User: Fold these one by one.
Assistant:
Number 1:
Amino acid sequence: MKETIKPQKFKFKAEVSQLLEILTHSLYTHRDVFIRELISNAADALDKVRFMEVRGDTISDPDLALEIRIDIDKEAGILTISDTGVGMTRDELTGNIGTIARSGTSEFVKQMAEGGEQAVNLIGRFGVGFYSVFMAAQEVEITTKSATPEEPAWVWISDGRGSYQIREAAEKTGRGTRIRVILREDTKEFAEEFRVKSTIEKYSSFVPFPIFIGKEQVNKIQAIWREPRSKVKKDQYHEFFKFIAHQSDDPMTWLHFSADVPLQFHALLFVPKTNFELMGFGREDDGIHLFVRRVLIDAHSKDVLPAYLRFMRGVLESDDLPLNISRETLQENPYMMKIRAAIVKKLLSHLEEFAEKEPEEYKKFWRAHGRILKEGYNDFQHKDQIAETFRFNSSKCRDADELVSLKTYVERMPEKQGEIVFLSGPSREALEANPAVEIFRVKDIEVLYCYDPIDEFVLPGLITYRDKQILSADQVDLKKLADIPVRDGDQKEAETGPDKKDLEKLARRMKDILGERVESVRLSERLIGSPAMLVGASDAMSAQMEKIMQMMNKDAKPSAKILEINPGHGMIRNLLTLYEKNPADLLLTKLVEGLYTSVLLLDGSAEHPEAMAASIQALIGETARLVLDEKTE
Ligand code: ADP
Ligand code: MG
């Protein structure tokens, strides 16, 4: 045999070498995963030729049947997996095998390096499934011929130790890819037919092309999404989910339904237990498998569901979409838009039902995916339904773990309460200590506690829920609360405090001391137990808008807020006494500064904790000195 071109040697990229090192030397379980990964690649390659065919592309060897063949040479310890798929050109070979292109993969490699034997089971999610072959192989030989006509066939050989070789194939081959796995002594089990068969049953029973071992087809082709629901068993749903989502857990819940008129489609959509995006693994695996007349048009279609449902996995098949539709026009396709609206509606009601039937499971769902689902607040078409799926912690929950729906919130609103009230802050402790909550607590008004910065957009973004306005606690008009009775045992302190006029003088002096840092200082109507708090100036931007501005522009200065002081609070009365003795008292100045600093901390506006600590310490020092000076005078 004559070789037309000399073999060329290439080094694996550093991150590939690192991955291979782990795969070959430290993983001893889940080795059978490599068979699943090679078959899955073969199936992807077959999907791609089928797609080229229906698009009308000219392809090489158009008469070849679309199938996967497995040959076992027990004596030699060689397992060969062949497909008649798209194959690879020389550039594709070097580009697709030998590099890692996806984001999230390095995080995955790190997890495996840290002893994640389980992690290897997820390898297919990270665009590096092929390399799993080196868990079993001492050498791998790929022979591949592209579906692009006139392309020669290529041979790729590697022992997985740092480099690989590519040469033009000497012998003539047909379209597709053949992967010869020369097994190691300790992995010879994979040259046993029963072992290979059982692996295929375990992982690859949903591969949509025939898999042959010798003459025998070892898989049934099951498009379960086209079956009636009553015919599909729970286990089949579980297995199918694991197959298409490349995950090892069962799904949390799923929705399977078909429609005929006026829209024709089959949908099978799963909610996974884990949200890989939120775990920092990137979004590469996003999307739904979209089939048109049995042809896989896109394995990661982003057009089937809106972005806020991107944690879903599954299949949509419709015979009424054009086969040659491009991914660009799909999004705008009116038929697709109608299907999408129908699916979203169904899916959101499914989630509502799920929440009702299995509240504990729904909590897990919300913890896993709520962060992304919340992005749906601005989908006006489904706003009402989306709001039903939201959950928050609140002042009426026993602990930070309990969640409340907007529906429950509204149902237990006191009769005269007009609005839905929320407040955001870093934690339950922080919000419980926030003076802005006090007035609501004594009036028995529930406050939704929002710990996620996105809630600041989500809740005001909904604007209303069941005709109730949604307002941040500092935006609620306190006059409207006047009619709501105070909760038993929580009587506001008797208003026999100092004269209002005197207090107003103190407030003016405090404004002098604080200068530009506050918009004004005024007597509070809302404070119960706390001496003071900051509220947004009514004509200024809402606190939420302000945060948006600051996110967009780091240099944007927060606008000055109003300092409210509690006329009934002992500390304020003491300050008044100091003021009345001597309005220019230096101690008074220092104490007002200190009060302001503490209030900033409570407000969560403490941008420079080190500066604040320094100012508190300076205050302690100077106060002590002032008191001592007074005593020695
Ligand atoms: P992924 O399948 O997630 O892309 P893999 O590491 O399994 O990651 O495969 C890398 C790439 O190698 C594939 O995307 C594909 O382009 C190519 N490839 C692997 N196996 C085959 C095959 N049997 N036929 C054609 N191309 C293949
Ligand atoms: Mg793969």
Note: Residues 440 and 446 are 7 Å apart (CA to CA).
Number 2:
Amino acid sequence: MKTILSGVQPSGTQHLGNYFGAMRQNIALSNDPNYEAYIFLADMHALTTVKDPAMLKKMSTDLMLDYLALGLDPEKTTFFQQSAVSAHTELAWILACLTPHGLLERAHSWKDALAKGVKDTTAGLFTYPVLMTADILLYKPDLVPVGKDQKQHLEIARDIAMKFNNQYGETFPLPEEYTPKEVAVVPGTDGQKMSKSYGNTIEFFAPENVLKKQVMGIVTDSTPVEDPKDPEKCNVFQIFKLFLDENEQKELADRYKNGGLGYGDAKKMLLERILDYFGPYRKKRVELEGNLDYINSVINSGNEKANQRALKTLEEVKKAVGLI
Ligand code: ADP
Ligand code: TRP
């Protein structure tokens, strides 16, 4: 059986980009009987940017609720919290002692932070890819599902694993990335990539009035209702597509091209579709919110399982490097 592992950062309310770009695939893979899956909340990684304790706590709980409401099955997946498995930071230190400074200087995430003039850059932000490498190598996964933005981090993980194997003997299999073809970049309400940092998101678990405002706020041009419209140039259509099969896409595209469909009506139809699609998950999430004991018990048992697995690798590593 193949092992997959993925980390998700608790960093705010989840949006359609997160769902179609990452969460949906993670959940499908973790429920696939052909894989043994580890999915964890990368809360140690979140510490690089989130400095408000109450906020970090809330975002972590929210992300647990989101994943469980969306159908992650904790019986089949080891769903855990990075900070509860201290082997992650221990291995990260051991790996840091092998990681060339230059390798981290070349990381896009670091270069972007410098280019954006982020003040108070920290050693944590700089060594972020080393912790991510430790996250991965501890579980020796065959596949790591990641979005495009994380590909370079996976290359770094392979580089560090190779360095370790060369120095101390074959210990880590090299992790392969897994990026499903169907995963595209989801556009936001203004047509740029949907992202929390651009304020152009559609948050599928938000209260209905907020969700409505986000959908009705999708930017469109001023073509009159009766005129033909180009679906490829319409932000509403580009988001709607995510919910439609091929026939439905063609039908809607024809309505655009024939004229007579106003953007306001298209938005209302999209809102209905989003509420339909996420309806059962929204309901489940409300139920789970009322049962935080259950959430805690799921995470505690995931933490225990992850600890057992991680400690095995850590012991192997400590022996290899001469610590025990
Ligand atoms: P944000 O840009 O809103 O801060 P994150 O960087 O936290 O989102 O992304 C979390 C995950 O969701 C990553 O795996 C990322 O690849 C995926 N993701 C985020 N936005 C999109 C998008 N617009 N299209 C596709 N995938 C996305
Ligand atoms: N850096 C990843 C992100 O921001 C999250 C992450 C942390 C991760 N550790 C990981 C993803 C290990 C895959 C494997 O999305």
Note: The chain has a mean pLDDT of 95.
